[in-house]
Amino acid sequence: MSARDIPWCVPDLSGREVEYVTDAVASGHIGPAGPYLERLERQVAEVSDAACAVTTCCGTDALHLALLLAGVRPGDEVVVPALTFVATANAVRHLGAYPVVVDIDPEYWQIDPCAVAAFLTGCEQRRGRVINPASGRRVAAVVPVHLLGHPAPLAELDELAQDSGIAVVADGAQGLGATYRGCGIASGGVLTSLSFNANKIITTGGGGAVLTGDPDLAARARYLGAQAASGTYQHDEVGHNWRMSNVSAAIGCAQVERLADLVAAKRRIHDAYSEALVNVPGVSQPGCAPWATTTRWFAPLAVDPATAGIDAAELRAHLASKGVSAGPVWTPLHQTRAHAGCAPAPCPVAERLGRAVLQLPCSPGMTEDEVSRTINAVRTGVRDAARGSAFRGIRARASVLRP
Ligand SMILES: Cc1ncc(COP(=O)(O)O)c(C=O)c1O
Question: In the chain, is it the N or the C terminus that has fewer CB atoms within a 10 Å radius of its CB?
Fold first, then answer.
């Protein structure tokens, strides 16, 4: 009998999820109000060092709402990193605004403050507004993404944003549980969005939240997310239904009480990979900044084909042949058809990593045996590539996986 296939990233629902969901259903509170919602918001705010959390249906909605709260308006531009999940840019577009991408740094893979500074230096101040002379549009905000569970360099971005008068809104979809300079990711009051999608560090099935240090902004988020109701069927603005259900929040409550364990499991997996793969030629992982702790939400591996003798798509195909599911990395935003043309300057780091990275299995419930099988599969992939001969079939299969 062959060993079971190793999935890429599946949630660990072995806590009190069923108990809490059963309780929520039995109570009749299945809509967007109820005790689990209040509890989830309190707990998520606490672990992030935010004064307030407002839950939403998903992380894309949370970012959309956070950008709206920050004053982004149709026709504005918003600076985002070139390498991130497409939802970062989609949230900007859903507001009628335009993402402008800048490169990421090669060490931690976070938005590069020097690239943001270079873009802002080319902009002009006109009547208190920052204008991109190439497009004539106002630049309203920058969105650091806590990519792969590692916090973005918030202080540098905050300084740049304050100097030029634009807002900072963090996309923390991947970052819950990380710390920045010893505090939670929303300390200092930075508006931050979270995602609780199924593969996130904690899940509610689907869901998200806006974190803020400002109770007035939290109140406005609740108002806009509940159809901007100002009285019984009276509405002064156009709102939306962005609210999470109490049933989803019940799953989230069971998850967030195990957040420390889930983060520890992710770090264990990462540490085992880095220890075992350190001497494998041509493969590397992103570092962790001295001012950060990362959750290692995903387990990316960059593959340099010139040294490893194999590229990321070929290694993924080899892993698949051993029953190990590894994922691809996101296509840099400016290379997607949806957001083509949004890079005012070259983004060589994002483009290189967009080709070079695969995501190793990282489910928090992975067994030691599964981690070892994954490590062996990476090692044999690179070893076979060095030998050359065993590799012809894998090359053919990899052409299907290559973007
Ligand atoms: C960086 C980033 N932003 C936003 C989102 C969107 O979250 P959701 O899928 O909950 O809408 C995700 C989800 O993967 C993400 O990774």
Answer: N
Strand 77-81 versus strand 98-102 pairing type: parallel
Distance CA 94, CA 64 (A): 7
Q: How far is the C-alpha of 193 from the C-alpha of 78, rounded, in Å?
A: 15
CB of 134 within 8 A of CB of 314?
A: no
Q: Hey, what are 314's tokens?
A: 């070929």
Q: Which of the following CATH numbers is that of domain 17-256: 3.40.50.2300, 3.40.50.720, 3.40.640.10, 3.90.180.10?
A: 3.40.640.10
The atom of ligand 1 lying closest to the CA of 61 is: 11
| Residues with Cβ within 8 Å of residue 97, at least 6 apart in sequence | 67, 72, 73, 74, 75, 76, 77, 78, 140
Whether 171 is in the pocket of ligand 1, judged by its Cβ within 6 Å, is yes
What angle separates helix 35-48 from helix 246-256, to the nearest 10 degrees?
Answer: 40
Instruction: Compute the distance between CA of residue 256 and CA of residue 252 in angstroms, rounded to an integer.
Output: 6
Q: Per CATH, is 259-401 categorized as 3.50.50.60?
A: no
Q: In sequence order, what DSSP letters do the residues of 82-109 get, joined into one string?
A: SSS-THHHHHHHHTT-EEEEE-B-TTT-
CB of 212 within 6 A of ligand 1: the answer is no
| pLDDT at position 388 | 75
Nearest-CA residue for atom 14 of ligand 1: 85
The answer to whether 381 and 315 are in contact (CB under 8 A) is: yes
Write the pLDDT tens digit of every residue in 330-348: 999 999 999 999 999 999 9
Residue 248 near ligand 1, beta carbon < 6 Å: no
For the chain, what are the domain ranges? Answer: 17-256, 259-401
Q: Do domains 17-256 and 259-401 have the same CATH topology?
A: no
Sheet holding 292-293, edge to edge: 183-184, 179-180, 292-293
Q: Assess whether the C-beta atom of 197 lies below 6 angstroms from ligand 1.
A: yes
- Return the ∠ at Cα 213 (arms to 47 and 98), rounded to 5°: 100
Segment 188-235, tens digit of pLDDT: 889 999 999 999 999 999 999 999 999 999 999 999 999 999 999 999
- What is the sign, positive or negative, of the torsion defined by CA atoms of 60, 62, 63, 67? positive
